[in-house]
């Protein structure tokens, strides 16, 4: 009743007044049409204009950036496109180096950023680079805007991957110039690239030879792993590159270590830089989550030690660093044959580029595996979830140590590092590490737990002449790497037990080492008493040649090299030895000439053979070993202060080894997929699509970040 009365009765007069209700409708209608008209107008404005307004709103916030208040990427005034890219790549919280540098870089300052390995330096420069071009509304027609220089192809590719992930919502083009491809073909495309990631040598070559290469509008130069760039002998190249770049630019320089040469480079390339050294005051220079130990081990026990270690860490992901490619090649081969019970992979500078990347990807995908590597893998490469880093051969110095161990305990994860030192290396190396604030404790090997594999190696070599030659090369190459090391306090080739070392590699006797003989022949006459003995000892494969007077040796070394600037030359030679060893050596040194592809084919054959014909004995015990789980590892780790090789007694005999994951070995050794590094094998769009690779293509601009 009330309702009806309410509608029709006197109380509801406003509701029924048609004039008033029309007035109200008219008002509403006018407001709505006005709003729509405005919206339409807004929509009709060119996108760039809307973007420009958004940009100016962002830029207005730059001066207020306060690093102390930043916790998430979204706390920075970043473009929606970058934030979306970060979110999609699951990056939300910032790391310390990112927190402290991104704001400065957004404000247009030059930055020298140093932080421990694995602390997130890549994003710290990629984000400001993307934002800079976004702010300038850069287009492909504007040419090169950002130049990122990285020491190695692998690292360049890794940066490229992060750039593609985070920058995928932007429209800039990005490209990799890392050598190995026809210069002319690269030259034809280089002028389309807005963000160029390159290695120094190839970049300089383009600057010298490519008429299309313009860097005159360059806005930002980024030097990543600056310490490594300089260590690799690129100082002159860098100077030449920097001279070719416009002075008015922003420069960001990142490094894991603060060396004098990095500071020199900074002086040359940065203008009034902001120094950000996030771990300067840290108690230690390695991540807190990294547990570091060292063992003292005789040279002739090292291979046994490694084997025993791997047998007790079957469910772990381990990287083992060696001093030279030939050691990696030989030990990779024999460890495949030994079938330690986990996939074995090898990464070294003598592999072709695509192979290196293939191994890298394969290792990244594996839950448990061991990667034998030279220092090519030591810096900058981001291998997720590595449990152990073993330094089988002593690193050149504390910086190399830090870079190597930096392959584990990345981004807040835990990790373990084990350094293997010869008795002659212990004192000086440990001193160096302590000085560099590296917390490293000695642990002992339990000799009862060491498995002796010498006889098995001897048997392999007896059946396989080619493998024997590899063992000889490994022997010579290791000695040379020690000989070429600068720090003679740590490295003394004349203290090494040659005969025992040869035996431990499976060789019946030590090969003749021509360069050592030469050194000895040139020793001054007045030191000849000791030295004659030494020459004899080497020729007769006696135990050590440690009695050489150090000064005399140093003199001879200089004579031998024929150069007074021996340090530089030796450094170069050492680098070649460890990462790109010379292709030819003397006949006495087992004819070391061999080319990459030959090597790849060999490795491939080896792996294929292993995968086709697994050891039936080992298959017999597969189930037993399969029961190994991480609990076993855990037990080992908890007691590792006493016994890092705490294997069960059943681990001993050769025939008990479980079946290896051959697929991994095959993958590591085959050449089935195209070049992953963008420069060497560009077989067409299908291949690129398959690999989702950022190749410098022959027909399309697959360099687009978007
Ligand atoms: N903000 C973040 N949130 C989550 N993960 C991150 C973040 N920043 C970096 N990472 C991850 O941390 C790892 C290490 O990052 P990055 O490679 O940039 O370190 P780095 O400092 O350059 O190390 P190195 O000196 O060894 O080259 C990478 O796997 C990266 O994806």
Automatic annotation (TrEMBL):
Name this polypeptide is given: ATP-dependent RNA helicase
Keyword ATP-binding: yes
Keywords: ATP-binding, Helicase, Hydrolase, Nucleotide-binding, RNA-binding
Class of enzymatic activity (EC top level): hydrolase
Gene behind the chain: LOC116501826
Segments carrying motif Q motif: 71-99
Source species: Aythya fuligula
Free-text comment on this protein's domains from its UniProt entry: The Q motif is unique to and characteristic of the DEAD box family of RNA helicases and controls ATP binding and hydrolysis.
The keyword RNA-binding belongs to this UniProt entry's keyword annotation: yes
Protein's job: RNA helicase.
SMART domains, sorted: DEXDc, DUF4217, HELICc
Residue spans of biased composition, Basic and acidic residues class: 568-583
EC number(s) per entry: 3.6.4.13
Helicase C-terminal domain ranges (all copies): 289-451
Stretches with biased composition (Acidic residues): 585-605, 622-632
